[in-house]
Design a protein that fits this description.
By secondary structure, the protein is of the alpha/beta class. It folds into two domains: 2-152, SPOUT methyltransferase, trefoil knot domain (Alpha/beta knot), CATH 3.40.1280.10; 169-224, Orthogonal Bundle (Trp Operon Repressor, Chain A). It is 34% helix and 16% strand. It contains eight helices and nine strands. The protein is elongated. The chain binds 6-chloroguanine. 6-chloroguanine binds at residues 86-88, 112, 131-133, 135-137, 139-140, 143.
Length: 226
């Protein structure tokens, strides 16, 4: 997979890709990530890329021309499966969307800033808009990093233990069950006996029941969601 990220602040988003799973995924050649700073496409040498909004109101809007130049250039080089705009006024990211995107070859991600981008950019280029939750961030950069993490770890061969993504929370619309490690007893607090029993079918059953219990308690909406 190749991911191109277009942003006002490439430096704000680089570091999550330089560590842990995301770094390993790149080292293994499973994904290539390229950052494009919008100021490189600015209208003048002062790096102007935003302006006041028509009709008045607080906040600057990212201008159409620098983004058009950047996206058009990239689109001439390859076909993108999706051109994604990160914005809070969009459908919320979920595991299903992450799964679908993990199967693509070329993703282009545009991140907003300030009041966002000129609507005409959204109309002309964007094939998918994604929010990461019902709250507002200062910019879409961190949201893009979240999206990339959720997607990249699902690319086959990225996680060492191939099954571990399958038992994540949400993979089957259930929260993950509780997990324990040594010692079996700490300060009077015991690990459930079943987990020490070696009876793996029973353990799986216990985990499934615990996952359902936890989901009922914390996220009952997931159980009604089909
Ligand atoms: Cl994608 N961007 C911003 N600025 N805020 C958000 C978001 C995105 N998703 C949730 N909040």
């Amino acid at each position: 997979m190749r991911i191109d990220i277009v942003t006002v602040s490439p430096e704000l988003i680089r570091s999550p890709f330089e560590h842990s799973i995301l770094k390993r995924a790149q080292d293994k050649g499973k994904v290539e990530v390229h950052f494009h700073g919008l100021r490189d496409y600015a209208l003048n040498r002062y790096g102007k890329i935003d302006d006041y909004q028509f009709g008045g109101g607080a906040g600057m809007v990212l201008m159409i021309e620098p983004i058009d130049k950047c996206l058009s250039g990239l689109m001439q080089e390859r076909d993108y499966d999706e051109i994604i705009y990160m914005t809070p006024d969009a459908p919320t990211l979920d595991q299903r969307t992450a799964n679908i995107l993990s199967d693509k070859s070329n993703l282009l991600i545009l991140t907003g800033h300030y009041k966002g981008v000129d609507q005409r950019i959204r109309d002309k280029f964007i094939t998918k808009e994604i929010s990461i939750g019902d709250y507002v961030l200062s910019g879409g950069e961190l949201a893009a990093a979240v999206l990339c993490d959720a997607v990249i770890r699902l690319i086959p061969g990225v996680l060492g233990d191939e099954t571990s993504a399958l038992t994540d929370s949400f993979q089957d619309n259930l929260l993950a069950p509780p997990v324990f490690t040594r010692p079996a007893e700490y300060d009077g607090m015991k690990v459930p006996d079943i987990l020490l029993s070696g009876n793996f079918p029973k353990i799986e059953e216990w985990r499934h029941d615990a996952a359902i219990e936890r989901t009922k308690l914390i996220r009952p909406d997931l159980l009604n969601d089909e």
